[in-house]
Amino acid sequence: MEAYLVAILIITAIYVLLSLGLTLQYGLTGLINFGHVGFFCIGAYAAAILSAYAGLPVIVGFLAAIVLAGLAAFPIGLIALRLRDDYFAIVTLGFSETVRIIVTSEKQLTNGVQGIPGIPRLVDGVGILSALAVLAVLLAANGAAIYAFRRIVASPFGRMIEAIRDNEEAVKALGKDPARFKIQVLVLGAALAGLSGAFYAHYIGYVSPDQFNPLVTFYVWMAIIMGGVGRISGAIVGTALLMLFLEGSRFLRDVMPFISAVDMASIRIGAVGLALVLFTLYRPQGLMGDFTRRR
Fold it and tell me: Residues 103, 235: one domain?
């Protein structure tokens, strides 16, 4: 049971990194990114290819995951950020699907639909001690990300992107270029998603295209909406709540054994969807949002 709980905490910590990246993009800047999983995928495959195929040190794979995911966001930003919010959302969704098609079709680098096995573990060994060591590294990474996030929020750059979120036209009237700031935020959020992808690849030990479908992006969206958009605490609490719904629903079969495993998967998604609807109706500001206001 302890090993199971540690595994859940590790996956939660990986998703917190993803949620922090999306919080930076949407919560602070207002960028509707429906392709967050694309950068997650790039980070995971970059780390997997360099570690499993090229035999390079794990740290090199992590650096490559961060850099390549961030670089992938740059041209997307140049093209898409001149579009309206709804079109930008569609473009980012199309980008993530393009990434998934590429890793599915490519045979030599990504091994196509069969994926990449044998990715080295972050910590050698098996058992609860090695899992706890991985969790400690992830907690340190989350702590560094949260510290950087707070510094950004408190900086002039943070105030500028919040102003862009609140009133982009007013920012333009002051002679500032919102597109430049949006691109920087998109790159930073994508780099954080790439880092989480590297952690995911080295923890699971295997990556395949099926692991990076659009549902991952919408899980992250659910997490930040339930927790509270634009808040670090919202990203953390929302992700924990999401994992509670996803993993807690696994035990429903103990009380309802007549439900098949296939149907249970649909029930799990339905439970999260119902929670999202209830939060939208009764707590639209999220669990960690301002309790003095409804909106």
Answer: no
Domain end among 211, 231, 255: 211
Q: Where are the alpha helices (DSSP H) in 33-167?
A: 36-48, 58-80, 85-105, 128-154, 156-166
Q: Which of 211, 236, 266 is the last residue of a domain?
A: 211
Per-residue pLDDT of the chain (295 residues; tens, 9 = 90+): 788 889 999 999 999 999 999 999 998 988 889 999 999 999 999 999 999 988 899 999 999 999 999 999 998 888 766 777 778 888 899 999 999 999 999 888 899 999 999 999 888 777 788 889 999 999 999 999 999 999 999 999 999 999 988 888 888 888 888 888 889 999 999 999 999 999 999 999 999 999 999 989 999 998 998 888 888 999 999 999 888 877 776 666 666 666 776 677 777 777 777 877 887 788 778 777 764 444 4
All residues at 6 or more sequence positions from 115 whose CB lies less than 8 Å from its CB, including other chains: 206, 207, 208, 209
225 and 188 part of one domain: no
